[in-house]
From TrEMBL:
InterPro entries noted in UniProt: Spo0E-like, Spo0E-like_sf
GO biological process: regulation of sporulation
Keywords annotated in UniProt: Coiled coil
Recorded coiled-coil stretches: 18-45
Keyword Heme: no
One Pfam family here: SpoOE-like
Keyword Transmembrane: no
Protein name, as recorded: Spo0E like sporulation regulatory protein
Length: 70
């Protein structure tokens, strides 16, 4: 995956471009879709872990949007 965010203070860092952020989110969604197609349940540990990773990047995007609006 390559791009990791470790602390809340890092969530909206500018060194993660919008394009990289979108690519990471799409990658996670593709992994989730593939896992489900291979028979993983939505509550499996792997799918839940992917969902939690996606939540982090969605939060980054929301923080950035809020900064632009204010």
């Amino acid at each position: 995956m390559g791009v990791l965010v470790s602390r809340k203070e890092d969530f909206a860092r500018d060194d993660i471009s919008d394009e990289a952020l979108q690519n990471v989110m799409e990658n996670i969604l593709n992994q989730m879709e593939e896992a489900v197609q291979q028979g993983e349940s939505l509550t499996s540990e792997y799918v839940v872990q992917l969902s939690q990773q996606l939540d982090i990047y969605v939060l980054i995007a929301q923080i950035r949007k809020m900064r632009c609006v204010s």
